[in-house]
Sequence to fold (833 residues):
Amino acid sequence: MYRYDEFDERVVRQRVAQFREQVGRRIDGSLTEEEFLPLRLMNGLYLQLHAYMLRVAIPYGTLDSRQMRQLALIADRYDRGYGHFTTRQNIQYNWPRLRDAPDILEMLADVQMHCIQTSGNCIRNVTADHFAGVAADEVEDPRPTAELIRQWSTLHPEFSFLPRKFKIAVTGSAEDRAAVAVHDIGIRIVRNAAGEVGYRIIVGGGLGRTPMIGKTVREFLPKDELLAYLEAIMRVYNLEGRRDNKFKARVKILVHELGAEAFIARVEEEYARLDGPSLNVDPAELARIAAYFAPPAFEALPEGSAVLDQAAARDPDLARFVRVNLYPHKMPGYTAVTVSLKPIGGPPGDATSDQMRALADIAERFSLDELRVTHIQNIVLPHVKLDEVPQVWAALVEAGLASANAGLVTDIIACPGMDYCSLATARSIPIAQEIAKRFADPDRQQLVGPLGIKISGCINACGHHHVGHIGILGLDKAGIENYQITLGGDPGNEASLGERLGPGIDAEQVPDAIERIVDTYLELRHADGESFIDTVRRVGLDPFKPVLQPKEPARAAA
Amino acid sequence: MPLLDRNGWKPESWARDAAAGAAIVPFDQVEAVLGARRPGQRIGVDLPNDVHPNALLPWQDGLDFVAIAFPRFNDGRGFSLGKMLREQGFAGTLRASGWIIPDQFAFALHCGFDEVEISEAQAQRQPIDQWLQAPALIGETYQDTQDGMISIFKRRRAAAEAA
Amino acid sequence: MAAGKRAALPLVLTASDLLDGDVVFYAGAGWARGLDEAAVAADEAQAAQFEAILAETEAKGDPVAPYLMTVRIDADGALVPGHVRERIRSRGPTIRTDLGPQARQERQHVSV
Fold:
């Protein structure tokens, strides 16, 4: 894991002191609310439906037990004993007070954490593959690149008042688990024909009210040119991105309106005039950052684990957990364990402070002191010995964290929705809870197989509904919450946007509709266990359309 | 309008009048005014923030001063514009003019601005000590800046090599 | 709330406390934490007065993000926000009835 040096430490401490001073000037009237708003947003503080909300950055989703314990302590001391893990690999507190925010930032700084640029029209927290350093198909660990971008983008004098927010994601694997095609900039670490490692740069993807898949603007950028090239992209965007309409201000609209070729030409022109050597960092500095992400001290272990096999043979619940929540590790004898924050009937992504402490304890003892937050709103224990999975599982059961549903139909992404969010047009969490209850039977979930349901409570699409295999979008229809269903979205390698199945339906109809969609899929899928998304891609939407018809006539006939 | 730089309030030495000895003129008049320049007259230009810096290239050597408009404090185009003008060799006085707030003063200085021109009302609300103290609040940057700060990346290397 | 047409009568004036972020309602003399304490504008004259207070509050910036909100008065005389969003905002999250004003009210009921 990255550790701050004296420079990083000073920036974060100074930032806390600056915010304390800014709050003071807000209170004494020197700053108007309008002027203060972007300043507090750039420190992660929103005003939400019931209270302020504080979003803490977890860069590329990586944290250690000490940091997780501090997050738990903050939840207890300054919030209501819980936190919400988000699709940007962050954590949000729903009830902090403005007057306490500087003290919370101070507590975060004590464990090398911050809220810098978790909101506002600036370069946001950089995300990365949650299986970084674990996956066998990795060209290179994406986290050193993400950390480099984090530092370069921090308090950037030129790019802190952009037309709109700007999100960057990095993946180093063949399989894209970071959804790079739907970010403002997506970066894939690739190898060229000569075997050199570099970056494929994708720009202009995004969700929200105008979902778009990003365009590749550079097939191969040499690794040491990254910052200058990013600087060129940001400059074109800062100057030319639309500022007349906030709904058209993201870079995806600029790329779309200019056309990819013209956009690329602008970027290359700007890139040519920039002083690249001065902007790019010295290879020794890259190496310094990368060294923090060197593989931890893995033990030489045999493939497989008799201990685990025997334990799983004795306990069907453990066996199920092993089947569903384990991801293969590149090192023999190790595995990555997904801890689902999606208990049946619980708010997706929420964890209590006790659960956070339990996770910290488990990570410290069994996962080389490391945890990851996933954009699916779960936690990963990245480096667990197979032999110790039974102990980890027992500890998770104890903490109420052993739901065996990773990647299944109840592993639902949901934004906070109208229960918390001031922008929402409908509730998301109760919809997720009701759907999960319908599929509570673990055998049924396993029969259905991999299926991602994603729910957003408004058109801004924080719940990523466009790339849900089943997407649900909550809207306000004349004062009533109304839900549109899309099918066929996918965030991965073959990124695609879902298509609307038909007119919106009421909240109470949603669980029925989802069940009927799943039943239709089960009837249509090939016997070889064809997945939901593959089936939808093969048969199209038509066979699913009848599920939105009201059931009433059938009931009347019965 | 009140004018300040990193040392405090300062008197205005320019006038938005093409006949003045130190004249600020609108961007679309720059060619004509430069053509009719009196000996010893200093010319500056008011630059809207939607003009690409390339457009100033033909004239910039004849200009002593550029004021870049900040129509709203959260419209950050001016930061790129200022930095790009410096990068393309503009060596005169660079002013941020309009609505910028003390919390952005460091960014403006880092992007190559020398001074800031704000409204009377804003000057009343945000006294000079707030402006002077703001840039000192963050004393480190991850970027090289136009006002001479060296990026943390480079300072680390320098420290490592010195060790 | 969206700019444009003013909220329909009867209405209350609501905002968020600057320092705590709590939902607050204009209560005649100052701001109250509970909707039941809110002052109600029932006619155009009172609504105009509320709009003036809204403008003043915006200029002052404390409490923050003020707006007018339509309510109805139920059979028991209690104020009920007209829109589901406002009902949730005035009570607390529907998925966590232990949090927000709804919890405060329940605790009060218990103590009575």
User: Anything to note?
Assistant: Residues 44-60 of chain C form the longest helix (17 residues). Chains C and B do not touch (no CB pair under 8 Å).
